[in-house]
Amino acid sequence: MINSKNHNTSLIKAEAKRLGFLSCGISKAQFLEAEAPRLEKWLKNNMHGEMQYMENHFDKRLDPTKLVEDSKSVISLLLNYYPSEVQNSESYKLSKYAFGTDYHFVIKDKLKSLLNFIQDEIGDVSGRAFVDSAPVLDKAWAAKSGLGWIGKHSNLLTQQVGSFYFIAELIIDLDLEYDLPTTDHCGTCTACIDACPTQAITEPYVVDGSKCISYFTIELKENIPTEFKGQFDDWMFGCDVCQDVCPWNRFSKSHNEPLFNPNPELLSMTKKDWEEITEDVFKKIFKDSAVKRTKFSGLKRNIQFLKD
User: Fold this and answer.
1) Is 132 a residue of the active site?
2) Catalytic residue, candidates 132, 173, 175, 244
3) Which residues pair with 158 in a beta bridge?
């Protein structure tokens, strides 16, 4: 490996941009000291609800060297998903991130291309790609590498482009130049806290996952608790309220990833159409979509909960 850290870092960032990533930041692969007590407290207070998987691999969540042997760098990447079109105003609502093809597939391919590029251009580099499917604290790493700050709604925020993007990582055994964290620009704003339909943001920077509409409509396998009736603001899959009201999202620009474009039928559907949706239509509209996670039965359950 004759290339310098500086040169390699520039190469990687340029290739990430070419692959369509919004931004790329790099931090040293080491134990996330500040996150450990926070994660422990969050789990202790049962804010993960039925998401048992959040309790697993506590040490791996905080230490990338336990995930990738001899890892030196965490490359964090953002991919914009902000759509140019919106759903019919008389519709049950779907989180914007789920409009098009499941992001796991789209991002995994880009990450593989980036890793191949690193290996071709720099040499014998080992690493792994992560898209929120392994115990990696995406937002913490993105913030550490200067891509934004974690807002009061616990999403990553940037002054230039808001928060409508996916976060992914490559953890590799190569030393690179590391970026510095940015500062918090939430100030005294409480728009997200005030707007949350289920009061899931229990205090600034703390979200009780077990009260979040996204949790109820995607993660929860049982019936949605009746005490939340009338509080879902017509969200049938996910929820964007805390992001929609955030002043920084005035700067969101539409993505240019064709795979994130929605099935046109999805945008025109009304509440009545959703209530009458058949399994065949579900399969057609959500062929490669993240919505498949909740399954046809889950979506029907959510719609029924909103309708009753």
Assistant:
1) yes
2) 132
3) 162
